[in-house]
Amino acid sequence: ATPTALLVGTGRGAQLGILIKGPEVLESTRTIDTVVLDKTGTVTTGRMTLIDVVLPGGDAVTAAAAAGARAELLRLAGALEHASEHPIAQAIARGADDETGPLPSAESFQNVPGKGVSGIVEGHAVIVGRESLLSDWALAVPAKLAAAKASAEARGRTAVLAAWDGEVRGLFIVADQVKPTSAEAVAQLRALGLTPVLLTGDNAAAARAIADEVGIERVIAEVLPEDKVAVISELQSEGRVVAMVGDGVNDAAALAQADLGLAMGTGTDAAIEASDITLVRGDLRSAADAIRLSRATLGTIK
Ligand code: ADP
Ligand code: MG
């Protein structure tokens, strides 16, 4: 490999919004056969919106009582999520603030990575998160909420539960959007002979729906943040040479473990630092451009 050719390739990358950490990075793309894509913030925009609030209900509940229950649910869960930086949390806090006005502040707050949040709001012990977090507290999901959750997830949405003082009080449905260029990017990666894999901490049904929307067959879902790196190692032990594209703090270790790590420039510093390549535009098509560019660069060297 002549240093000049590598330098030219690196320079061309910069013009395309592909920042390559060093000339040796181009070499490492040569044998990549699998591209692992983080879902939230990479394939999707990661900007979530609260689209529905479901109460456990019961036939005896009057309209006034239901309105009161909804307001209290938004206030207590919104206050707790206000303390979290997670995109789901921000969607809930924003939705709650829009509907009920200024939120109280949480008296205590604890983040449970990959699961949700817990804390004290107005003297109540509040939990907001996925079903497994509620199970940790021995709370069972009422049938109506379980049904609403399943149908939301089948449509690619994320549904989280809220509980306080030992009772499940409601379900929040949040929606994220697939970036307009993601499906085309996946098609380009396939055309380069690469196998795309979707990796996420989100539930399997929502992940499947997003994967179908962009044309990905293999989905690895419900992976805790600390386990994403192990997923990469496993794929490598299957004999695959793995590129990973991600944006989050929880992707950093996996990006470093991958044979080639690509960070969304719109993502966190931790992801960018752990990666070999930064895709400045946050457009997944740049991942395909990067592979194409290195192949072209290496092609001129051989
Ligand atoms: P991803 O890999 O999609 O970014 P995370 O690992 O951050 O997902 O979170 C996995 C799941 O844990 C979420 O889909 C959600 O169900 C739950 N969760 C995490 N943080 C929160 C939070 N602050 N509020 C509610 N639910 C949360
Ligand atoms: Mg992400």
**How many domains make up the 3D coordinates?**
2
User: How would you write the strand order of the largest sheet?
Assistant: 1-13-12-11-2-9-10
Please state roughly what percent of the residues sit in beta strands, choosing from under 5%, 5-15%, 15-25%, 25-35%, 35-45% or over 45%: 15-25%
Helix content: 40-55%
Question: How many strands in all?
Answer: 13
Compute the average pLDDT.
Answer: 93
**Low-pLDDT residue intervals, each spanning 5 or more residues:** none
What is the CATH level 1 assignment of the largest domain?
A: Alpha Beta
Structural class: alpha/beta
- Distance linking N and C termini: 7 Å
- CATH structural fold name of the largest domain: Rossmann fold
Rg over CA atoms, rounded to whole Å, is 22 Å
SSE sequence, one letter per element: HEHEHEHHEEEHHEEHEHEHEHEHEH
Number of helices: 13
Largest sheet: 7 strands, mixed
Shape: elongated
- Identify every distinct bound molecule in the structure, by name, code or SMILES: adenosine-5'-diphosphate, magnesium ion
In the CATH classification, which architecture of the largest domain applies?
Answer: 3-Layer(aba) Sandwich
Main location: membrane
Subcellular location: Cell membrane
Keywords: ATP-binding, Cell membrane, Membrane, Metal-binding, Nucleotide-binding, Translocase, Transmembrane, Transmembrane helix
Family: Belongs to the cation transport ATPase (P-type) (TC 3.A.3) family. Type IB subfamily.
